[in-house]
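Q: Structure tokens for this one, please.
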Amino acid sequence: GDQWDNGARIARLGLGACLSPQRYTVERTTETLARLLADPAFAQRAQATRERMRGETGAATAAAAILRRVS
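A: Here is the predicted structure, written as tokens:
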């Protein structure tokens, strides 16, 4: 699926971390979550992204584009 690509994109944007399924452990996941949650810069980036996305109408825009193509 596209989960790995989505995770890598989130990591590149500084909005999260991408954990390899082959290297997944509870300890690694716990450490990664603790690091992200303790990082004020992470929280600021997440807040800024949330505000930017709040005004977007991606689903409605996509639906309108599809309807224009099939009509």
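A few notes: The first helix runs from residue 3 to 12. The chain has a mean pLDDT of 91.
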